[in-house]
Amino acid sequence: MLGRNRQMRPGDNPELTSERLKCTFDTDILAAELNGGVENLAKMREIQQEVGKRTELWDASSPTHMSRIQKIENACRKLQHLFEVVSDIAPSDFKVMFSVLRTIFGIEGFPLALHSLMFVPTIQNQADDEQQEWWLMDAAQARIIGAYAQSELGHGTNLNHIETTATFDVTQDEFVVHTPTTTALKWWPGGMGVCATHVILVANLVIDGKNHGPHSFFVPVRDVDTHQPLPGVRVGDIGSKMGMNCFDNGYLGFDQFRIPRRNMLMRHYKVSREGVYTAPSHPKVGYSTMLYVRSEIVFHQAQFMFMALMIAVRYSAIRRQGEITPGAGEVRILDYQTQQFRLFPYIARAFASLAAAEKVQHLTELGLRNVKNGGNTEVLADLHALSCGLKSVVTHTAAETIEQARMACGGHGYSDASYLPTIYTCAVGACTYEGENIVLLLQVAKYLMKGAKAAAENRPLVGKPLGKHAPMIKHFEHVARKRIALAYELLKGELARGVDKEHAFARHAVDMSKAARAHTKLFIASAFVCRAEAVADPAVRLVFDQLVELHLNYELGEMAEDVLQDGYMSSDELRRMRQNVYVSFEKIRPNAVSIVDSFDIPDRELRSVLGRRDAP
Ligand SMILES: Cc1cc2nc3c(=O)[nH]c(=O)nc-3n(C[C@H](O)[C@H](O)[C@H](O)COP(=O)(O)OP(=O)(O)OC[C@H]3O[C@@H](n4cnc5c(N)ncnc54)[C@H](O)[C@@H]3O)c2cc1C
Q1: What was the ipTM of the complex prediction?
Q2: pLDDT value, residue 13
Q3: 378 catalytic per annotation
Q4: For position 125, what pLDDT does the model report?
């Protein structure tokens, strides 16, 4: 079957055209695979065209050169227009929506991002039916604007030590919300700096002097008409940040501020009129928003990798620098093996991350639906560990990918005009928010230690992928099993010496985090193999297979210490795997531009002078 690159147009830079003419597959078919199917892709393109026609949704000048306030105002201006036309163009699929939002706002986001990513989903997952009726419609129509206020100045990771309180006053049927110290100020919530009228507040629930720990409350903070802070509320902006400066991250404090009892989110946890507290059977049911959000973050990070790689690969195909054969003319930098080493394994990692994102989203949807309908809540612990591991590994990989892409573009990659600095500074925020990466890996490790016995008994750690890649997945499984077993042995040794559980774990935290990483990498590799097997078109399937092969060989090569240990693999085998990486480069090279073209990110959305489709 003849390949076809559908991005090729007359008048494009001939260097790119010659690359595109080498394409061995149909870029539209790969684009559909990467963008949620044929229908989604068509919808995405249709909406992008629609946005292209509506000049009010464009930036009057490049946001790079705007002040922070101008950026926020510009984003709000576009948001207002978007709300006016949203019924004409709104997609139902969130992947399409993400692409639309990225087209309109770029990746620096917009002040309502947390409203849709955290505020609304928390109400959907944690408010009871009556509460949803009260709040969801207003939230959906942005009559109220929400933020998610959990982190405090003094405590982000250690949620158990937050200081904000919500004390039940049985005489008035109200909670009294209070910020007792400066360190108890909520700090960081996105959208809270200037925009939010309401927040989901995470505060310690206190009844009759007993602290029941952090719970979620729906709290108004600004007047919806005047937008002024309500009496008893201190709220404002925390200033500019490394990136995402279209966002207004804020601070928030309360002085004995009263809210009705029914403003506590009561799908799972309840406080009755008499002040009787009821907790759900499984404490992790309250994690549902986190699960949902982390799975979205993984998906977004894969998209950031795609953007960076699209820019770097296209640029590398037109940039000529240096000669291999003296006098034969300068070569495209993409022809250097080192450049391929810098970019191709990351293309494979981006595909693998997307496959893992799709899988965890699917599992999360199934799990949450099941729990909502009264099903087994045990699955939440598995999903929690999975989402923590993936969020941590994929955000770290994305940061590495974008930085490699930037360096692959030389000095021009450092220019704001490449958009790579913006992509990087936005993407790396996710290494910290929604659970700091190291802390998340340690949570995965705790979960793994509980199941370490099963791992030692050779029970499969993930569902078995069938097919020709099964032996390679076994290597990943071996590494994960070994890492888990080592961490477990260290833990057991400490416990045998009389060290308490917490200190025993803390003394070996690095090995714990490595076990968690290895386990997550196994999940990612296995998800990628399964994803490739689901591709129907033979030419596109071949591209997937080549990237899977590269991914498996490259990742295992990175785990050399683990695979060589105890003679599991010989150094010859390892060398062969590393050689296979270069063999993969040769297979992938002719299609490199066509693969990144298939990410199907139009120029308006990519915002990169270096990565333009036509490379003028
Ligand atoms: C861009 C951005 C947006 C944000 N948006 C929001 C938002 O909308 N709402 C909200 O509530 N919060 C938000 N946050 C806050 C974010 O959730 C916290 O920054 C995060 O949870 C980390 O908490 P911390 O900053 O207090 O760091 P700390 O908890 O103080 O951690 C600092 C470092 O110490 C180490 N560390 C901490 N605890 C441990 C441990 N137990 N074991 C080992 N090492 C440890 C880690 O390496 C960590 O990096 C946002 C943050 C950023 C950067």
Answers
A1: 0.98
A2: 96
A3: no
A4: 86
Pairing of β 198-207 and β 146-149: parallel
Does ligand 1 come within 6 angstroms of the Cβ of 444?
no
Contact 425 CB / ligand 1 (< 6 Å): no
| Residue indicated by tokens 């029914």 | 262
What class does CATH assign to 14-111?
A: mainly alpha
Q: What is the pLDDT of residue 90?
A: 63
pLDDT at 354: 97
Atom of ligand 1 nearest to the CA of 118: 8
CB neighbour list of residue 479: distance below 8 Å, 6 or more residues apart: 518, 521, 522, 556, 559, 562, 563
Q: Is residue 149 lining ligand 1, measured as CB closer than 6 Å? A: yes
Q: Where are the domains of the chain?
A: 14-111, 119-283, 287-606
User: Which residues, given as ranges, of the chain have pLDDT below 70?
Assistant: 1-3, 86-94, 283-286, 454-466
190 marked ligand binding residue:
yes
Whats the size of the chain, residue-wise?
616
Pocket test for ligand 1, best of 202, 391, 431, 439 (most atoms within 8 A of CB): 439
With H, G, I as helix, E, B as strand and everything else as coil, classify residue 372: helix
Fold of 119-283: Butyryl-CoA Dehydrogenase, subunit A; domain 2 (2.40.110)
Q: Of 151, 155, 154, 175, which Cα lies nearest the Cα of 165?
A: 175
| CB neighbour class for 137 (10 Å; exposed up to 12, middle 13-18, buried from 19) | exposed
pLDDT, residue 193, reads 95
CATH number of the domain at 287-606, out of 1.20.140.10, 1.20.1250.20, 1.10.1660.10, 3.30.830.10? 1.20.140.10
pLDDT at 1: 46
**Residue 490 CA to ligand 1 centre (angstroms):** 28
Binding site membership of 156 for ligand 1 (Cβ less than 6 Å): yes
> H helices of 106-171, where?
113-114, 120-126, 129-140
Q: How far is the CA of 440 from the centre of ligand 1 (A)?
A: 11
